[in-house]
Amino acid sequence: MYALKTQNLKKSFTNADKTAEVLFGIDFEFSRGKLTAVMGPSGSGKSTFLMLVAGLDKPTDGKVFIEDIEITALNNKQLDQVRREKTGFIFQSYNLLPMLSVYDNVVLPLQLAKKNIEKTAILDIIEKVGLKGLEKRFPSQLSGGQQQRVAIARTLAQKPTVLFADEPTGALDSVTSRQILTLLKDCVKQTNQTIIMVTHDPSVAAIADEVVFLVDGQISGTIKNPTLQQITQTISSWEENEANEE
Q1: Number of domains comprising the chain
Q2: What is the pLDDT of residue 20?
Q3: What is the pLDDT of residue 163?
Q4: What pTM did the predictor assign?
Q5: What parts of the chain have a pLDDT lower than 50?
Q6: Sheet-wide strand order for 61-66
């Protein structure tokens, strides 16, 4: 069973009477309970694709389904509700409120959505992301890696069907980056979480269950259970093709 799928997904942008095609009819299913990395050269449409499947932008044509809900057919009010109930986001910028503690940052989306808050469950999530004992600290008292862990805990507390991550370790050092990636991988294993992660880093993509390669607005291939060598070889082929075209 898929967690998310696209059908003939297209996106173009018009500016000064000129139309630029970005995505060209993408059909793909993201498996439930898997971490999928989306990679591609600069300008390949990765960020645009993530915005569309997350319901943050509208496609020019095509459909996006989260479970059995076609989010591309919803009005703005319905879409807001689906995003609150079905999706979560982790970005490079942690988007924590500086005046709130770790605990309060984690529960804030639940409060805004007027959902029931189980303190024991929240504390358990905070412990799982390695922040036990830091619940009362403020973002300014945390390292960058710890702030990213708060952002992850905040997302997990919402129990999303699909968690979207856009370069989640891009601003972190290599050691902290590895810890965060291990945490995300554990989330997939322990809670059957579905994660779709955009990254340009082969070592980050290598921890995924599957890598999807997006080139020139189309899916050019996938690798299940990827190795770092397989990913770097694929990237080398992009570079060779670009060099030949020049």
Answers
A1: 1
A2: 86
A3: 92
A4: 0.89
A5: none
A6: 18-31, 2-15, 61-66, 69-70
**Secondary structure string (H, E, C) spanning the chain:** CEEEEEEEEEEEEEECCEEEEEEEEEEEEEECCCEEEEECCCCCCHHHHHHHHCCCCCCCEEEEEECCEEHHHCCHHHHHHHHHHHEEEEECCCCCCCCCCHHHHHHHHHHHCCCCCCHHHHHHHHHHCCCCCCCCCCHHHCCHHHHHHHHHHHHHHCCCCEEEEECCCCCCCHHHHHHHHHHHHHHHHHHCCEEEEECCCHHHHCCCCEEEEEECCEEEEEEECCCHHHHHHHHHHHHHHHHHHC
Q: Tell me the pairing of strands 69-70 and 61-66.
A: antiparallel
> What is the per-residue pLDDT for 243?
61
Please say whether the beta carbons of 34 and 210 come within 8 A. yes
pLDDT of residue 106: 95
Residue 245 pLDDT: 64
pLDDT, tens digit, 9 for 90 and up, residues 32-70: 999 999 998 888 889 899 999 999 999 999 999 999 899
Give me the pLDDT at residue 207, please: 92
Residues recorded for the chain: 246
What is the rounded distance in angstroms from the CA atom of residue 4 to the CA atom of residue 31?
7
**Structural domain of 11:** 2-245
**Residue holding tokens 């996106």?**
11
Write down the pLDDT at residue 39: 93
CATH code for position 116: 3.40.50.300
The structure tokens listed for 219 are: 């899916």
